[in-house]
Write a structure and sequence with these properties.
It is a single chain. The protein has two domains: 2-157 and 315-345, Quinone Oxidoreductase, Chain A, domain 1, CATH 3.90.180; 160-290, NAD(P)-binding Rossmann-like Domain (Rossmann fold, 3-Layer(aba) Sandwich). The strands form four sheets. Strands 3, 4, 5, 8, 9, 16 and 17 form a seven-stranded mixed β-sheet that branches. The protein has a six-stranded parallel β-sheet with strand order 12-11-10-13-14-15. Strands 1-2 form a two-stranded antiparallel sheet. It has helices spanning 41-47, 97-100, 150-153, 159-169, 185-196, 211-216, 252-255, 278-283, 296-309, 323-331, and strands at 2-7, 16-21, 29-38, 64-71, 83-86, 89-91, 112-113, 133-137, 142-143, 177-181, 200-205, 221-224, 238-243, 258-266, 287-290, 315-318, 338-342. Helix 4 packs across helix 5 (185-196) and helix 4 crosses helix 9. The radius of gyration is 20 Å and the shape is globular. The chain is an alpha/beta fold and 346 residues long. The structure holds NADP nicotinamide-adenine-dinucleotide phosphate and zinc ion (ZN) (2 copies). One zinc ion is lined by residues 92-93, 96, 98-99, 107-109.
Length: 346
């Protein structure tokens, strides 16, 4: 299928229009017309090789909402005309312990990323969803409830699941105090989830201008990290802290804020090794953890949770010819809170 999208031909180059072929449908494949494709800070890290070497040519994008336009002969999960979502990976080995447990994101044989990697044949470069058409195996796509707005739902497929799961896994809920570091694409989803789960919520932000938005998104408290006084009385207060920043920040400051047995979960990836004082962990039997997106069952669960609690991403919809500008604005934290590309403009 002839597809129009945007590509980076090499690291640190601008993305430019690109025409390529999507594969013919396999028995379990679903083809969709993309409605909206979300822009993630991970796209920027990978186009700019901030995590080590990337694979080019690269069509980034790993969060879409589309409408099914055709299905392979053995597809049973979706029908033509239905809205679907696809996220950060499009396949996995399907037979390792983690895949069989529904934790495909941790596939022992390596999940197939939606872009910046090879498909399972080991030679075909996977092209992401900054494009007008997409093809995905039905196993790796989810249903989208009718009540969810298409543009606001696209970021759920990465930012949403990345924050939903650690909060659920480490028990956010009534009686728990959750802090989110960084109110960006991921952070503003985490705040909404923690609030919907019934936890008391605090945002730590390096942007003083986001206090009002944080409150509208469910924050009970807002700390501007550069204001030293604002840190007072936060020691030993938190059960769960999630670091969603893309920057290299000092995590020791945050570990000190955890209660006994509290957990600091890293989801943001600066690409730089972190340095931790061991005594800060020992002193409160604290945990330092990481979490990466979610498996397919978990992804559907999160989409359903969003429909039930009326949660979507705050988005700024842009045309495809604005992609390069959105990268600079994202780095400058100048977006409320996620850019989404109108795929009809590819
Ligand atoms: P984003 O929209 O750019 O948000 C990141 C936020 O970090 C910013 O809004 C800002 O919040 C804060 N920040 C930025 N620069 C900072 C600085 N110099 N000092 C302190 N805070 C700073 O990025 P995103 O798309 O949410 O992604 C965040 C990170 O998560 C990226 O590294 C991305 O690659 C990673 N990620 C991980 C997973 C996973 O599975 N674990 C999935 C997707 C993305 P404030 O203005 O409020 O401070
Ligand atoms: Zn992402
Ligand atoms: Zn596997």
């Amino acid at each position: 299928m002839t597809t129009r999208g945007y590509v980076a031909h090499a690291a640190n180059t601008e993305l430019v229009p690109f025409e390529f072929e999507r594969r013919e449908l396999r028995p379990h494949d679903v083809a969709c017309e993309v409605l909206f494709a979300g822009i993630c800070h991970s796209d920027i890290h990978q186009v700019r090789e901030e995590w080590g070497s990337s694979l080019f040519p690269m069509v980034p994008g790993h969060k879409i909402i589309g409408v099914v336009s055709a299905v392979g002969p053995e597809v049973s999960k979706f029908a033509v005309g239905e809205r679907i979502g696809a996220g950060v990976f499009v396949d996995s080995c399907r037979e390792c312990e983690n895949c069989l447990d529904g934790l495909e994101q941790y596939c022992s044989n390596g999940m197939t990323p939606t872009y910046d990697g090879y498909e399972r044949d080991g030679t075909t470069i996977a092209f992401g969803d900054y494009s007008n058409h997409f093809v995905v195996d039905e196993t790796y796509a989810v249903h989208v409830a009718e009540s969810l707005d298409s543009a606001g739902a696209a970021p759920l497929l990465c930012a949403g699941i990345t924050l939903y799961l650690p909060l659920r896994h480490w028990g956010a809920g009534p009686g728990k105090h959750v802090a989110i570091i960084g109110l960006g694409g991921l952070g503003h989803m985490g705040l909404q989830f923690a609030h919907a789960m019934g936890a008391e919520t605090t945002v730590f932000s390096h942007s003083g201008s986001k206090a009002e938005d944080a409150s509208a998104l469910g924050a009970d408290h807002f700390v501007v990290t550069s204001e030293i006084d604002a840190w007072e009385n936060h020691d030993l207060r938190y059960d769960i802290i999630v670091n969603s920043t893309s920057a290299d920040i000092d995590l020791n400051r945050y570990l000190r804020l955890l209660k006994l047995d509290g957990t600091l979960v890293i989801v943001g990836l600066s690409g730089v090794p972190v340095s931790i004082y061991q005594d800060v962990l020992l002193a409160g039997r604290r945990w330092l953890a990481g979490s990466m997106i979610g498996g397919m069952t978990e992804l559907q669960e999160m989409m359903n949770f969003c429909a039930e609690h009326n949660i979507t991403s705050w988005v700024e919809v842009v045309n495809s010819n604005h992609i390069n500008q959105t990268y600079d604005r994202t780095i400058a934290s100048d977006v409320k809170y996620r850019f989404v590309i109108d795929a009809s403009t590819f």
